[in-house]
Amino acid sequence: MKLRDLSELAARNLREAALRNVLTTLGIAVGVASLVAMLSLGVGLQELVGRRLERSGLFDSVLVRPRTGNGGPGQARDRFLGNGPAPGATTAPPPLDEAARQQLAQLPNVVEVYPEFRFTGDLRLGAAGHLAQIASLPASASGNDAFEGMQGHFFSSPSAHEIILQLDLARDLADLQQLQPAALIGREVVMRYAGRQPVAPGTSEAASSDTPPRRARDEGSPSPEDAALGFSIVSSQVPLRIVGVVEAQAVTSGGGGFGNAGAYLPVVVAQNLGVVQGNDMSEIVRESTTGASGNHYTNLTVRVAHPSGIPAVENAVKAMGYIPFSLQDVTRSLTRVFAILDMLLGIFGSLALAVASLGIINTLVMAILERRREIGVLKALGASNGDIRQLFFTEAGVMGLVGGTAGVLLGWGIGRAIQFVTAIYLRRQSIPAENIWTVPWWLVAGAIGFSVVVSLLAGMYPATRAAQLDPVEALRYE
User: How far is it, in rounded angstroms, from Cα 29 to Cα 234?
Assistant: First the structure.
């Protein structure tokens, strides 16, 4: 049977039982719409998380830490994670110093390498002060989501003596002066902090063993404890100009902490201040065990031009003898979670399509009973079993194609309605609206193709049954 004749017969048969075929096609459309709506919601949520991670500055960053010394529990942990040296290795781990920072900056696809400084400071506005956790930020952090709706502006330059306050800290400082937080912008605040003052060589011998310990800010030679540390802890202060007030916590990638800072300084300024950090003691212990000395970093953040370049950078960091960590290590599990979520949403969405397939079977079986005489005539005129089978397959495929197309449009409309209602709800909660719904092209093509395949499978039994009719019995039917 020619394709043209086959198409004409299928179209005529579908028109004759228009209401029944329309209802069957509508059932397919509802099934496809539920499938598209659920999967588009899963894809939209996944893209929302991906956008947030990329804009946070963590998704394209690698945190580099030095390896622990040989024999310690940290080494066993590193080996367990696959980052440690081989068992029995005696080579001292390389220090994470300025030379290592320059070497990391030369790696392919690396945009910048910077340390993070995190310390406690006393911010004083006039006679009153407030203790706060201070963190450093690079200039590239200006694209962080936290600074989108900030009051004021970001640092004017990487070395500017400026500070950005988190809203809670700004409120505390403003209450001391009976001001609004926004009124602090442009004012000067004095930051007091514990600073490091290097000890001159030879001063350890000058200090007597029976001399009582001296406070670091006292005049004269350092105490034996300070000489052993290699530096004295002195009370320091620096004036800073408040340039911005940010509501959300800025996400930083170093030091094992995410946010939890009350104020932010430029990295260059924090490095030049020589602040004492909480992990300085562990660094001193490491130097005493490895024999290394000098200015070492607890960690460095390597920012990559594109997230796809992170695996190569991580391999290079491992080859240099350091421990890399990136958010992609965490998002691998997150990707699996979203894959499982998409699968579950697809299964639930396919249930309605499975029910619709029963409607196709019912419609075509009823068509066989009504068209037995027509099938007998076709076979008497020379139509083969394959021609009859193709005729019913074509009718099932047409219903699947039309129902799939209508279902995609219906699912798109449902998704738009969900997005509209969600946006209104978020705005009423004073939360910026986000796009939580996306219909990619592959979902459209896949939904229509899946609808056609399910329709063809549903039409397999009726088509086979129609092809096996005896033409003589079929002509006697009426």
Answer: 74
Name every residue whose Cβ is closer than 8 Å to that of residue 226 and which is 6 or more positions away in sequence.
199, 214, 216, 232, 233
Asked whether the beta carbons of 388 and 6 are under 8 A apart, the reply is no
Domain range for 259 is: 118-276
CB of 336 within 8 A of CB of 100?
Answer: no
Half-sphere exposure of 19 (CA within 13 A, CB side): 0
What are the tens digits of pLDDT across the range 163-213?
Answer: 998 888 888 888 877 788 888 888 899 999 888 776 655 544 434 334 344
Cα 396 to its chain centre, rounded Å, is 42
- Are 126 and 257 in a shared domain? yes
> Residue 202, class by beta-carbon neighbours within 10 Å (0-12 exposed, 13-18 middle, 19+ buried)?
exposed
DSSP 95: P
Q: Do 143 and 12 belong together in one domain?
A: no
Q: Is 219 exposed, middle or buried (0-12, 13-18, 19+ CB in 10 A)?
A: exposed
Domain-embedded: residue 297 = no
CB 274 within 8 A of CB 170: no
Instruction: Let me know whether 191 and 49 are in one domain.
Output: no
271 with 124, same domain? yes
Q: What is the pTM of this model?
A: 0.56
Q: What is the pLDDT of residues 367-397, one digit of tens each?
A: 776 667 777 777 777 777 787 778 877 888 8
Total domains in the chain come to 2
